[in-house]
C-alpha cells in the first residue's frame, strides 16, 4: 500500500467530529497547518466520518487471461441488448424470483413512502441508463424534456444529486439544471447547486470536492496513449471524463473485445496507480483510490447535514456496476434504499428495481405528486 496519492489529510481525526473544509480552487484542506487563510463564505461545515486520508488501492500486476475474460463477460452481461438465458447469471435465478427480492419500486411505492415517514428524502441518481436511455454514441445520450422536468420537480422538493461516471462539464450540459448537486467522474468531482436558496434548505454554502486532483496529468497522459493504441480498432472510443477514462466497446465487434481489453490492460500495466473496472460495454480507467459513488453519497449526505441516519431517507437509483458501491453504503447504513434500473436479473445490493428510464421518470413524478399532496405541503 502506498500513501503517495493522499490528497486529503486531517491533523485531527475522530468519527462524527465537526470539521471545516476550506475550499480553495476546489482543493480541500482539512488540516489547519495546510489551510490557506480563510475567506468569508468559503467554508462548508460538515460532520465527518471520512478517513484521515484517501488511501490508494494496490492494483496488482498483469492479469491472467481469465481476468480479461471476466471483464469481457461482465461487459457482455451488463448489455441491455444482449439476450441471455437466466441460468447464465450466477446466483440471480430467474426473473420472477429475482423480482421477489427486488420488487418494482412502482408497485411498492406506498411501502417505500411508509418507510420514509418522518425523514427527509434525498434523491441520488445515476445518469446513463437511469435518466437517459443507453445509446451507441455517448455524446448523444440526451435526456428527454419530460425527464428534465421530472428531475427539476424532484429537486424542488428534495435535495437531489446526480452521481455519474461522466465528467462534470458533460453531465451538466446534458442535465442543465442548476439546482442539483453533481458528483461527476464516479464521485471524484463534486459540486453543490448553483442556485442560492432551495426550498428545503435556508443556506446552500458553496461546495466542491475533488479527491483525485493530483491524477489529472496522469489521466490526460493515459488518454492520449489509449487514444493512439485503440484508434485502429474499428468502433473503439476513448472518452475523457476528466478524473477517469471510458474505453467504449459498444460499437466494436464482440470478437475483438478480448484483444481490445488486453490492449487497454497492457497500457495500464505502466500505471499501477490506476485501475480498470468493467461497466456497460465499457472499461473504466480510474485512480486507484478508495473513493467511489458510495463515498460520494456519504460525502453529500454529510455535507447536507444528515449525519444521523434516523433523520434521512436517501434513495439511490442506478443501473451500472459502479452504482453498487452506493447501494452497499445504504444497505450497510441501514437507511434509505437502492433501486436498480434493469430489465434482467442482476447481482445487486439494491432492494427495489425499475425497468428503464421511463419508469424512473414515473417514480419521480409520483414522488413529487405525493409530496405535493402531503399534509405539510411539500416540506
Ligand atoms: O455513471 P453513469 O452515469 O452510468 O456513467 C457510466 C458511463 O456511461 C456512459 O456510457 C454508457 O452510456 C453510453 C451512452 O448511452 C453507452 O454508449 C455506453 O455503452 C455505456 O457504457 C458514458 O459514456 C461513460 O463515460 C460513463 O462512464
From TrEMBL:
<dbReference type="GO" id="GO:0004805">
    <property type="term" value="F:trehalose-phosphatase activity"/>
</dbReference>
<comment type="similarity">
    <text>Belongs to the trehalose phosphatase family.</text>
</comment>
<dbReference type="InterPro" id="IPR036412">
    <property type="entry name" value="HAD-like_sf"/>
</dbReference>
<dbReference type="InterPro" id="IPR006379">
    <property type="entry name" value="HAD-SF_hydro_IIB"/>
</dbReference>
<dbReference type="Pfam" id="PF02358">
    <property type="entry name" value="Trehalose_PPase"/>
</dbReference>
<dbReference type="InterPro" id="IPR044651">
    <property type="entry name" value="OTSB-like"/>
</dbReference>
<comment type="function">
    <text>Removes the phosphate from trehalose 6-phosphate to produce free trehalose. Trehalose accumulation in plant may improve abiotic stress tolerance.</text>
</comment>
<protein>
    <recommendedName>
        <fullName>Trehalose 6-phosphate phosphatase</fullName>
        <ecNumber>3.1.3.12</ecNumber>
    </recommendedName>
</protein>
<keyword id="KW-0346">Stress response</keyword>
<dbReference type="GO" id="GO:0005992">
    <property type="term" value="P:trehalose biosynthetic process"/>
</dbReference>
<dbReference type="InterPro" id="IPR023214">
    <property type="entry name" value="HAD_sf"/>
</dbReference>
<dbReference type="InterPro" id="IPR003337">
    <property type="entry name" value="Trehalose_PPase"/>
</dbReference>
<comment type="pathway">
    <text>Glycan biosynthesis; trehalose biosynthesis.</text>
</comment>
<keyword id="KW-0378">Hydrolase</keyword>
Amino acid at each position: 500500500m502506498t500513501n503517495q496519492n493522499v490528497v486529503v489529510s486531517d491533523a485531527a481525526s475522530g468519527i462524527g467530529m465537526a470539521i471545516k473544509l476550506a475550499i480553495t480552487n476546489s482543493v480541500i484542506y482539512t488540516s489547519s497547518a495546510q489551510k490557506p487563510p480563510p475567506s468569508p463564505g468559503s467554508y462548508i461545515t460538515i460532520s465527518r466520518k471520512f478517513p484521515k486520508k484517501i488511501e490508494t488501492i494496490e492494483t496488482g500486476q498483469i492479469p491472467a487471461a481469465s481476468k480479461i475474460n471476466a471483464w469481457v463477460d461482465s461487459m457482455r452481461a451488463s448489455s441491455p441488448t444482449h439476450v441471455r438465458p437466466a441460468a447464465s447469471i450466477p446466483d440471480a435465478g430467474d426473473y420472477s424470483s429475482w423480482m421477489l427480492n427486488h420488487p418494482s419500486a412502482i408497485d411498492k411505492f406506498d411501502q417505500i413512502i411508509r418507510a420514509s415517514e418522518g425523514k427527509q428524502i434525498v434523491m441520488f441518481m445515476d445518469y446513463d441508463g437511469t435518466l437517459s436511455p443507453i445509446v451507441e454514441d455517448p455524446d448523444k445520450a440526451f435526456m428527454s424534456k419530460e425527464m428534465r422536468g421530472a428531475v427539476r420537480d424532484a429537486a424542488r422538493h428534495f435535495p437531489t444529486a446526480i452521481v455519474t461516471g461522466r465528467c462534470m462539464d458533460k453531465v451538466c450540459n446534458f442535465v442543465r439544471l442548476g439546482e442539483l448537486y453533481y458528483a461527476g467522474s464516479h464521485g471524484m468531482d463534486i459540486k453543490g447547486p448553483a442556485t442560492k436558496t432551495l426550498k428545503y434548505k435556508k443556506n446552500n454554502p458553496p461546495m466542491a470536492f475533488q479527491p483525485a486532483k493530483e491524477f489529472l496529468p496522469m489521466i490526460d497522459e493515459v488518454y492520449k496513449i489509449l487514444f493512439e493504441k485503440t484508434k485502429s480498432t474499428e468502433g473503439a472510443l476513448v472518452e475523457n471524463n476528466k478524473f477517469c477514462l471510458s474505453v467504449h466497446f459498444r460499437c466494436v465487434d464482440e470478437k475483438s473485445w478480448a484483444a481490445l481489453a488486453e490492449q487497454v490492460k497492457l497500457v495500464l500495466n505502466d500505471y499501477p496507480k490506476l485501475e480498470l473496472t468493467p461497466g456497460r460495454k465499457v472499461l473504466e480507467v480510474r485512480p486507484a483510490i478508495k473513493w467511489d459513488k458510495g463515498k460520494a453519497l456519504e460525502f453529500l449526505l454529510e455535507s447536507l447535514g444528515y449525519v444521523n441516519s434516523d433523520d434521512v431517507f436517501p434513495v439511490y437509483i442506478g443501473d451500472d456496476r459502479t452504482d453498487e458501491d452506493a447501494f452497499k453504503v445504504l444497505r450497510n447504513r441501514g437507511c434509505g434504499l437502492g433501486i436498480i434500473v434493469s430489465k434482467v436479473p442482476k447481482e445487486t445490493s439494491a432492494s427495489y428495481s425499475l425497468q428503464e428510464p421511463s419508469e424512473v421518470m414515473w417514480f419521480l413524478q409520483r414522488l413529487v405528486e405525493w409530496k405535493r399532496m402531503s399534509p405539510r405541503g411539500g416540506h
